[in-house]
Amino acid sequence: MTSEWHPFPEPRRMTMLRTGVIEFAVGAVPARWRGGLARWPLAT
What we know:
Layout: H1 12-33, H2 40-43
């Protein structure tokens, strides 16, 4: 017997915060290796 799928009601604020943290990590780590945070826009 299968149960019906229900979406998880996560608040929009938490979704945006988690997405921002992921973006920060994905942009800052490569930028650090490529010449510092001044190169951050190129890494993202």
